[in-house]
Structures
1.
Amino acid sequence: MGMYAMTGGATGIGAAIRTRLRAAGHEVIVVDIKDADIVADLGTAQGRRAALDGIRARAGDGLDGFVPCAGLSGNVADHALMASLNFFGTVELVEGLKDLLVARKGAVVLIASNSAPHPTSEDYVNALLAGDEATARTLAGAMQGHPVYSGSKLALARWMRRNMREYAAAGVRLNAIAPGYTRTPMTSAVEADPAYADAIREFLAATPLGRAGQPEDQADAVLFLLGPAASFICGSVLFVDGGYDAMTRPDAF
């Protein structure tokens, strides 16, 4: 069986991915801010270094896959932290584990969002992609929550597609899923927030399949992209959102 690492595996979508992988017999190294094999705050440079050191100490000769799932939603008050965790807490770990993934021709699945195409600041997205965390945090602090969130996920998708060729040449497939609204402890808190509750109800009512996603819906998509059935899929963003993106952007693909 395989050796996998992931972040954000304590709850929600991450917990469902962890459960699916372990049920298939794989060893899974979990990084999270609590209740994990490696406890680390990926919103900080120090925490990211600790996570990388911890994964390396446990991974042996390589990784068959990596799923950076840790992230924050758009309703959190600390917008700068959202930028740091959602983007740098993913990209720096993928880059820092590249050699372990190359060793086993592993696969990486990022967690983007069907909010990624939503309006945001291109200056903010460009700062993320340039690796300028200080500027990205400053810009995020002056923005509303949802554009900070959507911009962080747009930057992840762009980073994945821009870097796919280099990783593929080394035998590592980069892909991403773009979840729609999925019921987790994190999104339940957003749904209970009066500032977002009406918008979320409208969002769910408009979803073509007529329901919210479940963590298992996202986990199944991640395991597919990690596995041999997806061996020729590389650089793709798979929308797992009940048809919402296709409904709202029918001519964009």
2.
Amino acid sequence: MKTLFAALLIATPLLAQAAASVGQPAPAFTATDTAGRSVSLADFKGKTVVLEWVNPGCPYVRKHYGSGNLPATQKDAVAGGVVWLSINSTAKDASDYQPPAQLAQWMQSQKAAPSATLMDESGRIGQAYGARTTPHLYVIDAQGVLAYAGAIDSKPSANPADIPGATNYVKQVLGELRAGKAVSQPVTRAYGCSVKYASGA
């Protein structure tokens, strides 16, 4: 199992350098959440927004949810007025795809606290942002500019024991934005499992 994790780690961490660029306006999008509601990035104009790519089948995702790390980060962010959108770009024909109701149930079982969980089976949103791993995190500032792209933290492993000694980049970025400071690490290496995009996405 450790060998599998190591292979995933080597194969998937990529420097965020896709269509969406840090320092530029964040790509607009509209998607349906797990409850069937339409959600647009434009709905949150003037607010800081976190985008988190999620796939419950990924051991790196399970690390951060099973330990409570991601739910706690979500709760802290939302309590501070931040909008948190979890996005699943897993294709419908992928073995670990979960339909909306099942994904919503899993998120609830993990005590997750995003503002919404969005379905992106076509992969359009993920490709627009260049999301390559689960998890992959992006922070959009209140002016609608992409302020951060990369990992949830500084310890690229699937071991929950590494969390206490890691720097939580998302908390760091949100704190800097709240204080009116420049983001000290706007791009980091995302790590995790490859996003299972639909063919042709």
3.
Amino acid sequence: MLAAAPDAPLAPQQPDGVSGADAARGFVFASLTYLIWGFLPLYMKAMAHIPALEIVAHRVLWSMPIAGALLWVLGLTGDLAAALRSPRTLAMAALTACLIALNWLVYVWAIAAGRAVETALGYYINPLVSVTLGALLLGERLTRAQVVAVLLATAAVVILTVDAGGLPWVSLALALSFAGYGFFKKTLPVGPSQGFFLEVAILVLPALAYLVYLQFTGAAHFVPSRMSDVALLLFAGPATALPLILYAFGAKLLRIATLGLMQYIVPTMIALIAVFVFGEPFGPVRMVAFALIWIALAIYTWSIIAAPRRGG
């Protein structure tokens, strides 16, 4: 997908103080994460008959015990207790929780609605949206290569907008919500595991209230007469929490440049599944737009890889 230069690193680059064996384990953790996320549309498509909001509520509900068990095993409950006593931390966690819930909702709905190609585009342009947010909100300086990458991505969005007669809102909503999630997540003074638990803890009460409402109105799919749906919805917890846990471990053992290169596995798999499994259209206009995105990502990724060699 990315046209890497001949001297670009082909193996994972480990941070200082991390052994080659640890870096290899990190590469395995990250690969498993991206493969799970890449195949996730198949799971979501199997639940296309269930409303997206109900699926998201179950993702929240069944992620809670997994996230809590992880904190207990790792001995990180003390950090969480300190976070719960900080109104600012809770406010920021509420914001990130809302952003990730919005991202999940749009993603689940788009897969069911036959718009998986648009979700792939959203996750392709996400890193370019993130670097743009850094420039606009934090005053971070973009390199010339990054400016070119952002302009190419913008051109791709314009092409899709003109062709469709409206903004590709699914792609933009996914990219903006996830970029915003990553941006504000950095402000949380807790680790990724504690932060994830805090987010699902904030979301679990409204999610549970909604699911109870569905049960009382007879609209719920989590009932004994629909055991296949019960199994699918129960699996929402591991499908949500497991890749996030694997990613947290992998990120500690790999350099950002390596993770940045690997993250494009997910939208590539989504796009392939959308076209060859779901049969979604991928005409000439989309081909041109995606080609621009791939070129933009190649330029952007190379700018990250080359930066350390230039001394930053």
